[in-house]
């Protein structure tokens, strides 16, 4: 579920119920629910009530004994069967915007029409803005008693008016929807070990707090990494960073998560309702895992010798030869949703909700957290397949972007923002049925040696599409595999349909080998 997209809506309670019901079926590891809050004060309180009701003791609301969030965070073992909320902290008057008299009237109309009728004429006529904790005109601090509060009798009783109820992100001439809502104290207190921080630069004071998480746009992270790779990489060794899709992705498309994993980013928010290239890569990373994948050794805080991913990755040249022999049920049905996607065994969550671990400093094997799948969306328009299916198999290897014309900075790091990763693809001839047979010799796909491969962060993707002449080739089935899991020999490649449900398989022979090469050298810093 995510705002400002064309996704079908669902209620917040339904999301919480699904997380509680399915979140810990496969493993007891903790779940981090990342909240992007656009709700007003009453709604935020309602959200807290719902989470406490639906999650009960699963919800982490207080620090664990021996783990002060100012100094250290728990291990995964300490957080089993716990749900952690990632949200910004409540900072009182420092984080609060102006509350005008009109804002108070609006809140009261929503809460109780009778309270509005009990306002005194003086209060109605007052055109003064009320800052929470500060008088705008004089600049002097105001006490809580000086705030107008509306009780059942219409008096200025401070005990009946919480200062948070005055909070509004509206300013003159601006709509409340254009600003981020201020976080209330009741919601902010749930961010015990996972509190969101707005990134303002590498000199901000809270950058060393163990519990902080920076959420940064997919467009900005590559630029930050290109300008200061050592700083970004060092931060991500010990603290969380989360990448979220660009605001222009109103179609719920996904970025390439591997590009961020290579920069040490632990969490990449994915739109599970969209089955595209990014979701297939995400599937490959977390397939047959417990929602967590250990980082390669060079990406961990215990390794003091690596400065960027150029040092941390083990670079290899890959030789690959694949022979397609046959397929079974590669086109699972006569109709196929063109873009809907949901994992059949996963739980429901907010669109940016993620499963995660504590920062690298707290665990011996820091992990990349995987996102939680959402419930099956409304069916997408079906794609009618031809009566005679002609499946074409495309095999694509995805590695780090290697365009020679990209400029490098002084430390040899390339800004690949907006650039596609390096891909090498080969296609089979079209088959003649849902069970294609490529004969005794098979269809041989002999790849040229592929340089600059780091097998733990590179992937191979099998896509089966229906060969058509008059329109785009619809997706029939697919599989994506991390290269370090690709084994030589006679293999069955299990296929998934567009909803990630197992449907068929390919029978192949794989011949793969890797040879290590020297890591890319850093370019000398300019004098």
* Strand line-up across the major sheet: 1-2-3-4-5-6
Report the helical percentage: 10-25%
Give the distance, in angstroms, between the N- and C-terminal Cα atoms. 50 Å
Outline: globular
Q: Kindly report the average pLDDT value.
A: 74
Quick overview:
With 527 residues, the protein is an alpha/beta fold. Helices cover 17% and strands 21% of the residues.
Structure, described:
The structure is a single chain. The chain has eleven helices and 19 strands. The protein is an alpha/beta fold and 527 residues long. The protein has three domains: 12-93 and 186-305 and 340-369, Alpha-Beta Barrel (TIM Barrel), CATH 3.20.20; 95-178, no CATH class; 382-516, C2 domain (Immunoglobulin-like, Sandwich), CATH 2.60.40.150. The strands form five sheets. It has a six-stranded parallel sheet with strand order 1-2-3-4-5-6. Strands 8, 14, 15, 18 and 19 form a five-stranded antiparallel sheet that branches. A four-stranded antiparallel sheet has the order 13-12-16-17. Helix 7 (220-227) packs across helix 8. It is globular, with a radius of gyration of 27 Å. Residues 93-101, 112-179, 334-366, 371-386, 403-419 and 523-527 have low confidence and may be disordered.
């Amino acid at each position: 579920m995510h705002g400002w997209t064309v996704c079908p809506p669902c209620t917040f309670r339904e999301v919480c119920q699904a997380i509680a019901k399915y979140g810990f079926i496969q493993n007891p590891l903790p779940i981090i629910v990342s909240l992007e809050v656009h709700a007003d004060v009453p709604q935020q309180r309602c959200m807290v009530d719902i989470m406490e009701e639906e999650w009960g003791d699963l919800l982490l609301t207080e620090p664990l004994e021996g783990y002060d969030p100012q100094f250290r965070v728990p291990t995964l073992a300490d957080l089993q069967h716990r749900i952690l909320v990632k949200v910004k902290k409540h900072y009182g008057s420092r984080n609060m915007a102006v509350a005008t008299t009109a804002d108070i009237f609006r809140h009261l109309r929503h809460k109780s029409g009778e309270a509005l009728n009990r306002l005194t004429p003086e209060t109605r006529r007052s055109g003064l803005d009320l800052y929470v904790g500060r008088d705008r005109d004089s600049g002097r601090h105001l006490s809580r008693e000086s705030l107008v509060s509306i009780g059942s009798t219409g008096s200025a009783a401070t005990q009946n008016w919480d200062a948070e109820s005055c909070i509004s992100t509206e300013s003159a001439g601006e709509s409340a929807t254009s600003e981020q809502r201020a976080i209330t104290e009741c919601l902010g207190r749930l961010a015990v070990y996972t509190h969101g921080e707005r990134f303002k630069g590498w000199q901000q004071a809270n950058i060393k707090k163990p519990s902080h998480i920076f959420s940064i746009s997919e467009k900005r992270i590559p630029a930050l990494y290109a300008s200061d790779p050592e700083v970004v990489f060092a931060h991500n060794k010990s603290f969380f960073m989360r990448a979220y899709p660009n605001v222009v992705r109103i179609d719920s498309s996904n970025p390439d998560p591997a590009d961020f994993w290579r920069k040490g980013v632990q969490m990449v928010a994915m739109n599970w309702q969209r089955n595209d290239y990014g979701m297939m890569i995400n599937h490959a990373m977390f397939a047959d895992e417990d929602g967590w994948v250990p980082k390669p050794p060079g990406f961990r805080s215990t390794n003091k010798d690596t400065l960027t991913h150029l040092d941390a990755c083990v670079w290899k040249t890959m030789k690959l030869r694949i022979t397609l022999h046959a397929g079974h049920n590669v086109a699972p049905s006569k109709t196929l949703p063109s873009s809907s996607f949901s994992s059949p065994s996963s739980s429901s969550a907010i669109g940016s909700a993620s499963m995660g671990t504590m920062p690298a400093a707290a665990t011996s094997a820091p992990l990349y957290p995987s996102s939680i799948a959402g419930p099956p969306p409304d069916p997408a328009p079906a794609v009618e397949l031809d009566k005679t299916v002609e499946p074409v198999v495309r095999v694509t290897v995805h590695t780090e972007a290697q365009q020679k014309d990209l400029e490098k900075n002084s430390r040899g790091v390339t800004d690949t923002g907006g650039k596609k990763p390096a891909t090498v693809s080969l296609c089979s001839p079209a088959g003649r049925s849902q069970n294609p047979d490529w004969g005794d010799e098979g269809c041989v796909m002999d790849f040229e040696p592929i340089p600059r491969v780091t097998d733990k962060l590179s992937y191979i993707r099998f896509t089966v599409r229906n060969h058509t002449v008059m329109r785009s080739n619809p997706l029939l089935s697919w599989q994506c595999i991390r290269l370090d899991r690709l084994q030589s020999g006679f293999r069955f490649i299990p296929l998934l349909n567009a909803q990630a449900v197992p449907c068929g398989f390919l029978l192949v022979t794989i011949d793969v080998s890797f040879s290590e090469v020297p890591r890319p050298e850093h370019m000398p810093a300019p004098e």
